[in-house]
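Dear Dr. H.,

I hope your travels went smoothly. While you were away I took the liberty of generating a structure for the chain from your last submission, since the lab meeting agenda had it listed for discussion. I wanted you to have the full record in hand beforehand rather than looking at slides cold. The sequence, exactly as received, is reproduced here:
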Amino acid sequence: MLLIKDAKIYTAAGKVIDKGDILVDRGKIKKIGSGLEAEGAKVIDADGLVAIPGIIDAHSHISGFAQGMKDQDLNEVSGNATPQVEAVFSVDTGSEAFERALQAGITTSAIAPGSGNVIGGTVCAVKSHGKNIEDMCIKNPIALKAALGGNPKGVYGKRNQLPMTRMGIAQVIRENMIKAREYMDKQKKAGDDKSKMPPRDLGMENLARVLRKEISLKIHCTQFDIITAIRLSREFDIDFTLEHAWGASDYYDDIMASGCKGIVYGPIGVPLGPGERRKLDIFSLVELDRRGMPCAIMTDGPIFNPDMIVVQAGEVVRAGGRIERVINMLTINAAKIMGVDDRIGSLEPGKDADIALFRGTPALDTNARVEHTIVNGEVVWSRG
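The corresponding predicted structure, in token form, is as follows:
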């Protein structure tokens, strides 16, 4: 057992406790309150510390891209659409990237294929600590990755292959969705007659999951590509999230009317330039959150260091976001968008004991730093 005593607790469940305790037993949160005692428990004196749920990075590529991006295992650019591949097979659980995540208080990441392909493959939710991928991966798949804009254009345009343009990108998505619908129709008509079943196609199976709304389409898009994402999602009646979402402030009404399941914003530490990086408007999360849109923040790791996630959250506070709402963007909102909020994202009895203990309030105090990171009730990183 583990007992955290006298912390200020942001539960991400609608409650802030100024001086409270968290009792952990067998990897789960058992009790939250004041004056808790537990014989034989390891005790962390958290007086003066701030406890939040373990931070969740809702869009990452850590362990699948080496630092400097020279060696990679998450862009299967052998074809413009590869819905059949799964990011989980590229996760290097021994990567030092997970250690850096723990130092930043990140306990779970949504690890996605890169954006080289229009449809890149499935996304998995992976904890930052564990024995192996079976131990660390808490849900697979959580989404299917898609990408609009400059990335797939940059890969295939150089080859004089489809897609060289944005209209080509939209067409690749439409063609694959139509094929998946036809695949599903053949399965339905075959019924129990195995002789009439179409040959099994893993890519079509993953697209069918999207069409059945079992998982969402996680769409890399910025600027006016946001409208393309909305149009395509409406055409095929699918659930989707907007990833990166630079320029979202131009489309508040469109986004809110679209049925979008969440915004995963960032990173903001990119050079401003024409086109896709023209408008880094993280302030848009304040308005979208006010309107009821689930909002989360990403690192896009290893593009940026893990501690950038808290720096970006601080920019949302600076733009007028309330600290409780912004901590939700680092925790429970990300968990809901990823479909793992039954296990992580808030400090509540019964949930996994993933906890970040800060000295100072993250996103509010510029000098806030992680003192302890706890995964499944185990202190897996401590300062010093």
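Two observations you may find useful: The chain has a mean pLDDT of 96. The chain has two domains: 1-52+346-384, 55-344.

With kind regards,
E. W.
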